[in-house]
Each structure stands twice: as structure tokens, then as C-alpha cells.
Design goal:
This protein is an alpha+beta fold. It is built from 12 helices and 17 strands. The strands form 4 sheets. Strands 2-1-5-4-3 form a 5-stranded antiparallel β-sheet. Strands 7-6-10-9-8 form a 5-stranded antiparallel β-sheet. The protein has a 5-stranded mixed β-sheet with strand order 12-14-15-17-16. Helix 7 packs across helix 8, helix 9 runs antiparallel to helix 10 and helix 10 packs parallel to helix 11.
């Protein structure tokens, strides 16, 4: 066989890459060297691209990115600091009111005239209530919740209606702050602050409460808020105690000192921070001050500055992309396309092809082209040797199968001669059985030789041919039929031999032992594919066979052991069981081995 690469790429023998035009097959090694452009001075591809990117991107990209990062971080830090400072100031103002009210309640708790509900109690509470617009009412209750006295009270005796809240007051050991409620006496929206009273023995003895007017607090809240900000006091229960405007959904779990983002129903963005006002405790919902700032309009000055900060890098990327697009097209892509066409010709076995001149290509591309030619020469030579070796091995394997089949035929002939000299009896039956088994082995090797497939064989072809061999001859007065139905599955050669022996053994046992005393019968063989497993079933409608009752010294017992041994060789299991409707069924189940694709010679 001639080498198709002979005289094509001198690189295969260690010659440097050619330099002249790669077109028709050159006549000498000098032309091959000239085809790839050896000796021409070129800037390397890597240095060309790096220099191009530096020239196009560095001045604009560095300046724009640094400017954008500095502005963004400065704006973000200022926004966080401003929000946190405003929220803390608002929380401190409200916390001062709550602390002053708590101090007032403690002083009232120490006043016997108030705790006892004596004379002058109502006047004292009214005077304190009128001293500050923050208080809507101040009330003293006894242990059962009846009003002892109040700055603003009903004309009739009054008991606390919200018993659940009164129960929390009874069990508290500190000042409780409620959510927003409607004052029973004032008709205003208020926050209740309650201090439980204890006698000398520590028993609950009523409470003093102060109602903070949310209308007055809301006015103070609005006075401290800018038009573009939203401030609110919210409870852990989800209630908005007071707010200067509608706010977007607020997540109260936001850690203090950090900022979070949200959107309102109109889609506008908000940035907010949260500062605790009243810490949650047993029977006490936490209160939080929320300070939110609406994002500036899209085309405000801050937005224009941010847009410019990010447009400059984009512009730089566009300029660099255009430069890289042009540069890579000129220096890389067109040469890669030529290399791809060249490799496709080589992959198809055309090692003589010269597609285009690589004389003006970058140094790396020329090196790759030269390597492809060296590789093509080495592959062509190796393919030639592999094809020759593979053809030789296939011929040897087929010849081995042919000779093994012929040897089996000779052995069968000798056994037939020997059997003809014996009379009817167990010796002749044993020789006939051995001849049938050898015939099955010879059939496997004959089919392998005929098909030319050395790694696998069709189950339908193999078992179908074996079924024809096993069909019993019609004798006068006796008619036994054999029917076969086999799925077509490629079988590994190592599986084919024990499978054929198993079928020979079970069919022979069914025909020989299954119809004693009967003139007619039917034997059926089925091979089924179950995905990664297969089954071979041989059934008959004879007298039936119980393997548990077979004496160990009878031929049927030897056959049963052989059947099980063949099943073990296949990695499966076999059993013979009587059928309910009569006869017996021999079942073989085994895994199908994954086939290794045979090595085939490449087409050149």
C-alpha cells in the first residue's frame, strides 16, 4: 500500500515549516518551507493583541472606572450616613418623649393621692396633662381595671375594656408601650404607656397610664421630614403607628445602621434605614423608627453623573471591541478558517491538500500550520500500519474460527462413527448428546466466520439456526414439534457459547424426557430482551418434570447440573418448574453485557 503523504509535508522528517504558497503539492522540501513563510519577521499574535487592547482601552477605561467608583462610593456613603443620622435624630426625639413619660408615670406611682384615688387625684392628673400637648389623657386604675381618677374621665364608673392588654399590664414589671389605639375618653388616636403598681407585698395594685396624642406626634414628625423623605413609626405587629406619607413595603428585620431598598406601588425606588425605638419584650411589641428616601428621578443631576460614569467605560469597550474585531479578523480569524479547512481535509484523509498561503500569517499561526503538516504525515503512516495490522488480525481471527469449526465437524464425524457401532443404550445416548453439544459450538464459530463480525453475533440468527438443528425428526407414530420465537439482540461472543449449550440441553431434555409414553407433544423456545437483561424460556406440554425428585445418578440430574452451571457462567440463574396446565418450563435469566464497538479501519 502506497503512502498518500509521500512527498507532501517535509516536517514529518524533521524539516522546518515551509514558507511558499500552500497550493498544489510542492515538488521539493524547499517549496514546502517557502509555503509557510519561514524566515519572515512578524510580531507575535499575543503581543499584537495585548498592544492593541492597551492602546485602545487603558487611558479611557482607567479614568472612567476610577471616577465612577469614587463617585459611587462617595454617594453611597453619604446616603447611608445621612439616612442613619436622620433616623437616629428622629428616634432620639421620640425616645426623649417616651423617657419623659416613663419618668412621669414613675413619679405618679409614688404619689399616694394618685395611687389611692383620693381627693385631688383628678386635678393633679389634669394639671399634668395640660402642661404638655403630648398627653391626650392620664388615668389611674385599680387592680380590677376600674378608673380611680383621670385627667379626662367619664361621668360614670369605667372599667378597662381590653382585658388582654390589661392582663399584659398586670404581668409586666416595667413600663409597657402599646400599639396605636383609640382613646376611650378622648376619642383620639393615641399610644398608651402603662406602669403597673405593686403594694408592699409585691401584689398587683392597679396601674397609671399616659396616652400620647399621635396627632401631635405626627405633626412633629412631618415638621422634621423633608418633602422627598418618608418617616414612620412601625410596630412589630405590622401596624404603622404614624407616618408622614405612604411608604413602600418595609422589612423590619433590616439590621440597624444598614440601608435596604424597596419599591412602592407606582414602581418608584426607595432607600430606607431602621432604628429601634422600643425594644421588644414579654408582652411588649417592639417599635421602630423608619426613615426612607425616594430615589432621585432618572434624569436628575446625580443620575446624569452616574450615567456618564458608566457610559465612559461602555464607550471604551465599544472602541476596543471594534479594534479587536478588526484586528482579530485580520490576524486570527481568517487564518483559523484556513487552518480549519486544512484540518478538515486532513480528517478526511486528504493529506496532500494545500489550501492557502500562510506566508503573511502571524508566527503562532504558521507554527500551528507546520505542526498540522507534521501531524498529518505521522497519522498517515500510523493509519497505514494500523490498517495493515487490523486486516491481518481480522484475517487471522476468521481463519481461527474457520479451523475451529472444521475441527468440531471432524470431532462430530468421529462421534457419529463411534455411535453407529454402538447399540441402543446409555452409551450411545451420551455420545449423541456430546455430538449435539459440539454441533452447537461449531454453529457459533461458523456463523462468526460467515458474518465477519468477531465481537458479537445476532441472537435471532444464532438461536434460529440452532433451533433448526434441534427440531426432532418425524418418526412413525410419534410427532414432537419445536417452535421458536427469538428477539434480535447483539450477543457478546462470551455469552453466545454457554447460551447455545443451555438451549441444546433444555430442548433435548424436554424432547427426550418430557413425553414418555406419549406420541405427540409441543416444545416452545422464546428469547426475550428486557433492556439490560434477557431471558430464554423453554416450555413443553409433556408429563412434567420435578427437579427435586430427580435421582442424583440419572442422566437428567447430570443435565440439570449442567444447566445450572451454564447459567452461572452467564452470570444469571436458571430454574425448571412444572406448569399448572401440564408440562414443565425451564427459565434462564442473565444480564446482557455491554458490547465494545469493533475497531474498523479508517477510509483514506
Amino acid at each position: 500500500m502506497s503512502n498518500p503523504l509521500r512527498g507532501a509535508p517535509p516536517e514529518a522528517s524533521g524539516v522546518s515549516p515551509p514558507e511558499s504558497k500552500i497550493g498544489a503539492a510542492p515538488a521539493s522540501g524547499d517549496e514546502d518551507e517557502a509555503a509557510i513563510g519561514r524566515g519572515t519577521r512578524h510580531l507575535s499574535l499575543r503581543r499584537s493583541l495585548v498592544l492593541l487592547i492597551i492602546v485602545a482601552l487603558l487611558p479611557i477605561m482607567v479614568l472612567a472606572v476610577l471616577q465612577g467608583l469614587v463617585r459611587l462610593e462617595t454617594r453611597r456613603s453619604a446616603e447611608i450616613d445621612q439616612l442613619s443620622a436622620n433616623a437616629s435624630a428622629l428616634a432620639d426625639a421620640n425616645r426623649t418623649i417616651l423617657s419623659g413619660t416613663a419618668t412621669l408615670l414613675q413619679s405618679l406611682a409614688a404619689n399616694p393621692a394618685v395611687t389611692g384615688g383620693g381627693r385631688g387625684c383628678a386635678e393633679t392628673l389634669a394639671r399634668l396633662r395640660n402642661a404638655s400637648p403630648a398627653y391626650a389623657n392620664i388615668v389611674a386604675y385599680d387592680a380590677d381595671g376600674w378608673v380611680r381618677c383621670a385627667a379626662i374621665g367619664p361621668g360614670l364608673p369605667y372599667i378597662v375594656q381590653d382585658r388582654a392588654w390589661w392582663s399584659r399590664v398586670r404581668n409586666a414589671d416595667h413600663v409597657l408601650v402599646s400599639d396605636a389605639v383609640w382613646g376611650a375618653f378622648t376619642g383620639k388616636r393615641v399610644i398608651l404607656m402603662a406602669l403597673p403598681l405593686r403594694d408592699a407585698k409585691g401584689r398587683f395594685d392597679g396601674a397609671v397610664t399616659a396616652s400620647l396624642d399621635l396627632g401631635w406626634l405626627d405633626m412633629r414628625l412631618r415638621a422634621r421630614a423633608r418633602p422627598d423623605t418618608g418617616v414612620a413609626v412601625m410596630s412589630d405587629s405590622g401596624q404603622t403607628v404614624m407616618a408622614n406619607r405612604a411608604l413602600p413595603p418595609i422589612r423590619l428585620a433590616t439590621p440597624p445602621g444598614t440601608v435596604a431598598r424597596s419599591r412602592d406601588r407606582s414602581g418608584a425606588g426607595w432607600t430606607y434605614t431602621i432604628v429601634p425605638l422600643v425594644m421588644p419584650a414579654t408582652g411588649q411589641n417592639g417599635l421602630h423608627v423608619v426613615y426612607a428616601s425616594q430615589d432621585p428621578p432618572r434624569f436628575a443631576l446625580a443620575w446624569w453623573q452616574t450615567l456618564v460614569d458608566f457610559l465612559l467605560p461602555v464607550l471604551a469597550i465599544m472602541i476596543a471591541s471594534a479594534a479587536i474585531w478588526f484586528g482579530t479578523q485580520r490576524m486570527v480569524l481568517r487564518w483559523l478558517a484556513d487552518l480549519q479547512r486544512l484540518s478538515l481535509h486532513f480528517a478526511a484523509g486528504d493529506y496532500r491538500h494545500r489550501a492557502v498561503s500562510f506566508a503573511r500569517a502571524p508566527r503562532e499561526i504558521r507554527g500551528v500550520a507546520a505542526s498540522l503538516y507534521r501531524m498529518s504525515a505521522a497519522i498517515a503512516e500510523r493509519d497505514r500500519r494500523l490498517r495493515e495490522s487490523l486486516d491481518h488480525q481480522r484475517r487471522l481471527a476468521r481463519e481461527v474460527h474457520h479451523r475451529v469449526k472444521n475441527n468440531f465437524q471432524v470431532v462430530m464425524s468421529l462421534l457419529s462413527l463411534q455411535s453407529s457401532r454402538l447399540g441402543d443404550g446409555e452409551a450411545r445416548a451420551a455420545i449423541d448428546q456430546a455430538r449435539r453439544r459440539i454441533g452447537a459450538l461449531a454453529l457459533v464459530h461458523r456463523l462468526i466466520y460467515d458474518s465477519g463480525e468477531l465481537a458479537s453475533i445476532s441472537s435471532r440468527t444464532l438461536l434460529g439456526a440452532l433451533c433448526e438443528q434441534l427440531k426432532p425428526a418425524d418418526l412413525p407414530g410419534r410427532r414432537i414439534t419445536l417452535s421458536c420465537d427469538f428477539d434480535d439482540v447483539p450477543l457478546d461472543i462470551d455469552n453466545a457459547v454457554p447460551l447455545t449449550l443451555w438451549l441444546v440441553e433444555t430442548v433435548h431434555n424436554a424432547i427426550t424426557h418430557g413425553f414418555a409414553g406419549r406420541d405427540e407433544g409441543r416444545v416452545a423456545a422464546q428469547f426475550r430482551n428486557h433492556g439490560d437483561r434477557a431471558s430464554l424460556i423453554v416450555t413443553d406440554d409433556g408429563i412434567g418434570f420435578d427437579p427435586a425428585q430427580a435421582p442424583g445418578d440419572r442422566p437428567s440430574a447430570y443435565g440439570l447440573r449442567l444447566i445450572r452451571a451454564l447459567a452461572t457462567q452467564l452470570g444469571g440463574s436458571a430454574e425448571i418448574q412444572p406448569q399448572a396446565e401440564g408440562g414443565s418450563a425451564a427459565t434462564l435469566q442473565f444480564p446482557l453485557r455491554a458490547l465494545t464497538p469493533p475497531l474498523r479501519p479508517a477510509i483514506s
